[in-house]
Structures are given as C-alpha cells and as structure tokens.
Amino acid sequence: MSSIDARTPSHASTTTQSFDAEQFMQHLDQLFATHTPAAQIEQYLLDCLQQTHELDDAAGEFSVLNEILGFYRSQGRHSDNIAMAERLITLSKHMHIEGSEAWATTLINIATAYRAAGQYAHAQQWYAEALDQSEQLFGKHDRRLAALHNNLSMLYSETGDLRQAANELEQALSIISASSTDPSRDIDVASTHTNLALVLAQTQTADSREQAYDHAATALRIYHHGGLEHSGHFASALACFAQVCFLQGNIQQAITAFRLSLVVIEQCYGKDTESYRVIESNLHDVLEAAHQSHIDIPQEPPLSGNFDHDIALFWNALQLESQIHDENRHSVTHTDTTETAHQSMSGLALARAYWIEYGKVLLDAFPALQGRVAVGLVGHGSECYGFDDEYSHDHDFGPRFCMWLTDEDYQQYGEQLEQAYRALPHEFMGYALSDDARTPRSLGAGRRDGVFAIGDFFESITGYRSAPSSDPQQAHQWLLLDEATLAAATNGEIFADPLGAFSSTRQGFKNMPDDVRLALISRRLGMMSQAGQYNLPRMLKRHDGAAAWLALREFVQACSSLVFLINQPITVGYLPYYKWQFAALRKLSRRMASRLPQVCEQLESLMRLSSAACFGGVGFGEGGKGAEPAIEQITSCIDSICSAVVDELLTEGLTRSQETFLEWQRPYIEEHITNPWLRSL
Asked: Which segments constitute the DUF4037 domain (predicted)?
C-alpha cells in the first residue's frame, strides 16, 4: 500500500523537514474513497503517527491523532480511542494552543470519543470546555455552536436525561434559526426539529408527545417549502414523523409517512440499501399493528415513476391527515383547573416539577455543592417505571426526588442536605406524601427519595456500588443480578447531573457484557423449550392442571425475558418484576423497530387461555367442548412464538439452524460466547 512521500528516518536526522499534513489528508481521503480495508487504513494512520514522532513534528502528530480519533470511533474501538485522546490532551497542553479554533475542534473530538466509550462524566467535562472555548472564539450565537449543543443532546439522551437533551436541542434550534437567512427553507433547521421530535417522543407526557408531533411536522413543512424533497434527509424526517405518529396511536398517518420515506430513499439511494430495508421493516411492523388492531390501512397511491408527481400524491395524503389531526387536537376543550392537572400528573412529572420549584432553591444554601449534585427519580416504585396511575397514589406516592452525591461530598454534606430536604413542604400541586412515605422504613435504609451517596444508592438496590466488571472472570457477578433488580437500578429519569458520575454508574448497569447476554438468551431458550414445548403438553395429557399451569408460567416468564435480551438491555432496559412485566412488554412492543413485537399479545393470549386449558375439564365452556379447543390454541400459539424466535435468531446471525425446538438452538447461540464458563449453564 502506498504511503506518504519518502521521508525516512535517515532524512529526518539530517534535514529539518516537517510532516506534510496536507498530503496526509489527501491520501487518507483517497483510501476512504476507494473503500480500502480498515486494517490497511489503520496501518497507514499508525505509520504516519510514527513519522511525526521521528520528525519531532508536534503539529503533524496533532493532525494525525485527530484523524485516528474519528477512525477508531467509527470502528467501535473505544479503549484504543481513549488512549489516543489522552495523548492528544497531553500534546495540546505542550503546544499551548488553548484559545485557538484548532483546540476548540479538538475538544469536541475528545469529548465525543469519551461519549462513545460511555465515559460520560469525562465527555461532559470536555464538551463544557469546548462550549466555553467556542463561545469565546465565535460568540454565543455562532452557528457552529449548534453542533456542540447537538452533541451534548446525544450525551444526555444516552444517559437518560431526556429533558436536558431536549433543552440542548432547543438551544441549537434557536442558534440555527437566528443565523438562518430563511428558517422556513433551511435544511439544518429542519434536521434540528427532527432530532428534537425524536427526543420528545421518548418522554412519558402527553404534552411532550404533542410537541414532538409539532416539531416533526414543522420539519416536513420546511422540506416541502424549500423544495428539498430530493434529499435523503427528507426520508429521515419522514421516518421520524412516522415514528411520532405511531407512538401517538395515529397508525394511518404513520403508514403514509413511512411509504413516502421509502419513495424518497429509492430515488436517492435505491432499494438495495440498509436504510431502505430498515424503513421497510418499520413499515411492516406498523402494518402488522394496524391489522391486529383492526385499523383501516390507507390506500397506497399508484406510483407513476415520476418522482415529483409521486411525491405530490403522497404529500397531499399527508397534508390532509395532518389537517385532520390538528382539527381533532384543537377541538378538545382544554381547561387549566387544578383538578385536571391533578388527574393527569405522573409521578415523574410531579418529581421534576417539585425539584424545579423547591429543590433548586434548596441547593442555593449549599454553594460548595453547586454543579456537583445529580438529581432525579430512579429505583423502586411504579412512577419510576412511568407506569403509575390513579391507583398508585395510595402508597409511597407524592412529591419527592433523589439527590446523589459523590462519596466525598456525601461524607461532608449528606446529613445537612438530607435534613434540608426533609424540611421541604410535604404538599405540592394538590398532592401530599402518603403516610407510608414517612414511616421508619421509608426514612431509613430502604428510603426511596432524599440524599444518597451514589455508591450507597446502587448498593441498596443491587448489592453492588457500581456495575460488575466485563472481565470474564467476573461474569458470575452479572449472573447474580436478576433482571428485575437491574430494571430498578436503571429506570426513571435524571433531571440534572453536572458531573455525570451518577449517569455513568447507572449506564454501567445497563451495559451488560454480550457474553452474559448471550448466555442468558441460551438459558431462556432452554426453559422455553423445557416448559412450553416439552413439559406443558405432557402435564396436560396427565390431566395435572396445576403442573401444566406452572409450566406455562415458566414459558411466559422465560419468553418475556428473552424479548428484552434480544432487544438489547443497553437500548431498552430490562424486564421489570412481575407486576409491571406486561406493561413493559406492551411499551416495548409499540417501540419502533422493536424485535419480536408480536410476542407480547401472544403471551397475553396464552395467559387468557390457561385457565380453560389447564382446569377446563370435560364439558367445560360453551357447548361443553371441554379444554381441548383451548389446548389446541395454546399449542398453536407456542409454536408460532418459537418459530418467530428462530426467525429473529437467524436475522441476528445467532444461529444457522431453522429448527424450532428451541433446546437445539442453544449450541448455535453458544458458538458466539467467548467465555467458556458461560456456555451451557
């Protein structure tokens, strides 16, 4: 493979030549353009880095290191990337380039490297410095700062602080809109509206979902008014709009938007692309949801092959439905009475409002803790999962939040801050703390709100002050943590986390090592096979209804866990304890691009049929047909679930077999496990 001009070590010892950064960049661009294998690109980068050392050229090394950061990040090699970032930090200090545009750009690269590696506290620190440097260099309203706020939004999204993520995007939108010559036709403004819609759509409140719809629709109008429909970004905006509609239950509008997105992707990139396949899969999921819910599917306009004509057809359909949506939304009579607010307030929304009203003022009395306290609501309790309703208000409910401190801060200020927190009003927005929220249990080691050291908080839930290591020898520690425990440690919302320490620790519990995840998938397949495919029919034949019911329960539990494991806990979290198991499954099934979305409804059917199948007996039910029809339906449903699981394993590349008896799938799964101690557990 070719390399930079022949500047050999012998030349470097006899000349004052410097590294040719311009030629380096040109050749690197050529390697990427010709799809050179990653291993060769890496070798070229490392060879150039070595040349900068031999030439003692700090500026050249600075340029190469910045490119290596981007390359390693794209390859997912985060530990290698962090080593390069640390070298770049040291080199930058040696070069005294603080205050320059090059340093501001490098700060963003360093911060992004830490974010990609999951080191959120470091990432937030470097993003903050990048923002400070950029504001000094360019001013607070320079368009380049919008990208920084976008990066910060991604950081907050990844750490679960969706409110702060939305705030960062709103700042980015304000900057871009103010600097645009025509915001109504600006593609960057449209893209920011799309990103903001995606963040808001993930929150639990109706207001946020409505805001998400408005931002997604605004993005579409910008593309339309600006004549920008030929852009691939338009396809992404349509997919976002479709996802927001789907989450709002407007399935017909989601179908129309997904269909239009496919038309745009085909015109821009062709059908044989990953983006086309992803959107096609999403459309299939929505069509299936419409079919199962008996919703009329909008007729697809016939395509003419003329892109602009076809866009106009779809756009007219989309605009008509948008108008209907707006009319329906605004026809509702809104009242601002306390009673209405009281009925609609969720526990998480109440906690955030309580924090804003009283918590921020409380911290003003502790100046040493400014910029050091994480705040939110995480842990045990229906409201932490977002599943609370009016029936949840009879215990452990009321205005409350948690504050998390480092060990050092907690040792010095924890007791004083806890006393100040307990002195806050016990009534807020018409809600009062229930009596059992002030019992010795709720105020002692088992308390669910107040002031905690970060490590103590997670230890009280999981038994560990931080997530177990990914070291193969420590895998048993992960296996000691059941999924309901991990769900409680990673649910809820974070309202503020200036240090990032709480978010980083919480994210560690989400980041289950893949060997452990695959080992658990193998276990779940084994239990589904043993309980549902083997023992259930045998127990039914023996007329042992109680044993059959228990077998069915084991199948449902194992399958529910499998759905979450297949969907990746780092993305969707963990299956919570039995009380909220199906609420969580339904929520996951409605999520766009969810894997095995149909399984939740099938499992609920199994539960409904279980009584008749296990205890029906002869003459049971309508017409005296006994348990047999229910047994046949259960058998068919289990077969369908197991077939769907195998199809998903094949899609994920986890098996090469189409065998639907799930026990026989386990060896194929375990081929992907590198830790031998985790196989066939």
From this structure: 478-580
| Chain position carrying tokens 């425990």 | 485
3-state SS track over 310-356: HHHHHHHHHHHHHHHHHHHHHHCCCCCCHHHHHHHCCHHHHHHHHHH
Residue 180, helix vs strand vs coil: coil
Residue 16, φ and ψ in degrees, nearest 5: -110, 25
User: What are the phi and psi torsion angles at 32 (to 5°)?
Assistant: -70, -40
Query: Which residues in the chain show pLDDT less than 50?
Result: 1-15, 320-343, 439-442, 618-619, 621-624
Token pair, residue 57, equals 């050229």
**Distance (Å, rounded) from C-alpha 377 to C-alpha 240?**
28
Q: Phi and psi dihedrals of 674, rounded to 5?
A: -85, -25
Task: State residue 327's pLDDT score.
Answer: 44
* Cβ-proximal residues to 21 (8 Å cutoff; 6+ apart), any chain: 59, 60, 63
The SS3 call for residue 220 is helix
What gap in Å lies between CA 141 and CA 176, rounded to an integer?
A: 8
Residues facing residue 405 across a β-bridge: 453
Distance CA 598, CA 351 (A): 34
Separation of alpha carbons 270 and 259, rounded Å: 14
Q: Which two structure tokens, joined as six digits, stand for 558?
A: 């194992």
Q: Which amino acid is at 42?
A: E
**CA pseudo-torsion sign 427, 428, 431, 433:** negative
SS3 state at 452 = strand
What was the pLDDT predicted at 394? 53
Collapsing DSSP to helix, strand or coil, 432 comes out as strand
Contact residues for 221 (Cβ-Cβ < 8 A; gap 6+): 184
Q: What are the structure tokens assigned to 541, written together?
A: 């034949």
Rounded-to-integer distance, Cα 319 and Cα 217, Å: 10
- What does the block give as tokens for 313? 């057809």
Element (H, E) at 572: helix 569-572
Cα angle at 116 between 111 and 122, to 5 degrees? Answer: 40
Question: 492 is written with which tokens?
Answer: 């809820």
**Among 168, 126, 133, 137, residue whose Cα is nearest residue 150:** 168
Rg (the chain; Cα; Å) = 28
**What pLDDT was estimated at residue 341?**
39
Q: Are 51 and 4 in contact (CB under 8 A)?
A: yes
**Phi, psi (deg, nearest 5) at residue 133:** -65, -45
Look at residue 1 in the predicted model and tell me its pLDDT.
37
Q: How far is Cα 557 from Cα 580, in angstroms, rounded to an integer? A: 12
| Contacts for 70-73: CB closer than 8 Å, 24+ residues apart | 70/109, 71/41, 71/42, 71/45, 72/113, 73/112, 73/113, 73/116
Q: Are 420 and 364 in contact (CB under 8 A)?
A: no
Quick one: tokens of 329? 């939304």
* Chain centroid offset of residue 551 CA: 33
State how beta strands 374-377 and 493-496 pair.
antiparallel
Element (H, E) at 631: helix 628-651
Nearest to 477 by CA among 503, 446, 453, 513: 513
Task: Give the pairing type, strands 402-405 and 450-453.
Answer: parallel
Please give the span between the terminal C-alpha atoms of the chain, in angstroms, as a whole number: 47
**Helical segments of 34-100, H only:** 38-54, 58-74, 78-95
Q: Considering only CA atoms, which of 493, 492, 523, 533 is closest in space to residue 634?
A: 533
Whole-number Å distance between alpha carbons of 159 and 124: 11
Identify whether the C-beta of residue 288 lies closer than 8 Å to the C-beta of residue 313: no
The Cα 587–Cα 378 span in angstroms is 18
| Nearest 10 degrees: Cα torsion 179, 184, 185, 187 | 70
- Six token digits for residue 556: 């449902």
pLDDT in the model for residue 152: 85
